[in-house]
Amino acid sequence: MNPAFLTGKTAAHGALAILAVVAVLGIGVPIWSAFQAQREDIDGDLQQLGEIQAQIAARPQLETELAAINRRGASVPGIVEGDSTALAQAKLQSDLKGIIEGAKGQVRSMEALPGEQKGAFEMIAIECDLAIPQGRLKDLAYAVASHAPYLFVDQASISAPPSNPDEPQNRDILLDVRWTVHGYRWTGRR
User: Fold this and answer.
1) More confident residue, 7 or 162
2) E-state strands within 12-148
3) How far is Cα 49 from Cα 26, in angstroms, rounded to an integer?
4) Residue finishing a domain among 22, 53, 75
5) Are residues 45 and 71 in the same domain?
6) DSSP labels for 156-188?
7) pLDDT (tens digit, 9 = 90+) per residue, 138-171?
8) Hey, is 87 helix, strand or coil?
9) What is the pLDDT of residue 45?
10) CB of 102 closer than 8 Å to CB of 95
11) CA atoms of 179 and 159, how far apart (whole Å)
């Protein structure tokens, strides 16, 4: 055999081996990497699917717990009752009218302000103009402070008419009061 032929044959085998290695590295490794990334994506998707199925399975129990919380929240003493904002506002207006008239005051006007969500409660506010004898103001304040449902005075301005030296000093002066009173209604929403 010719030694040059062996060297050429060996060189051809070497070149073929190098070509095979380059083909494996250039084609095989990217394909293997793609399959590996696809397997990782499938594993991640299966894990996420398991978590979603667990959440779906837990939903009935969570809904039952939420319903129990809403029943307890709706029965909290001191909140304004009403299935809607409008009904709660009407109830609060009626209560305020009764409190004011019970203290010998006169309601001049009332305006329901927009409800404002505060956590799981809705703040129901009424702006009210009224007149009350000066000697009955403390009765009115006590009636509001001790009322159930609980009421809170946000803003208040009280004014008296200018004094008249011709009127008797012991006369009960009629005060003008403008205040915003609010209470809370359970909504269960956050």
Assistant:
1) 162
2) 106-118, 121-133
3) 35
4) 75
5) yes
6) EEEE-PPP-TTS-TTS-PEEEEEEEEEEEEE--
7) 999 999 988 888 999 988 999 988 877 666 666 6
8) helix
9) 85
10) no
11) 12
Q: CA 137 to CA 146: how far, in whole Å?
A: 14
Determine the average pLDDT of the residues in 118-130.
Answer: 91
CATH number at residue 144: 3.30.70.60
DSSP bridge partners of 181: 126, 153
* 112 touches 93 (CB < 8 A): yes
Q: Which residue reads 């004898």 in tokens?
A: 133
For 155, the enclosing helix (H) or strand (E) is strand 152-159
Distance CA 159, CA 177 (A): 7
> Based on the number of CB atoms within 10 Å of its own CB, is 150 exposed (0-12), middle (13-18) or buried (19 or more)?
middle
Tell me, yes or no, whether 106 and 37 share the same domain. Answer: no
- At residue 70 the predicted structure's pLDDT band, cuts being 50, 70 and 90, is low
* Residue whose pair of structure tokens reads 């008797």 in the numeric block: 168
Residue 126: is it exposed, middle or buried by C-beta count within 10 angstroms (0-12/13-18/19+)? buried
What pLDDT is stored for residue 87 in this prediction?
A: 92
Identify the band that residue 71 occupies on the pLDDT scale cut at 50, 70 and 90.
low
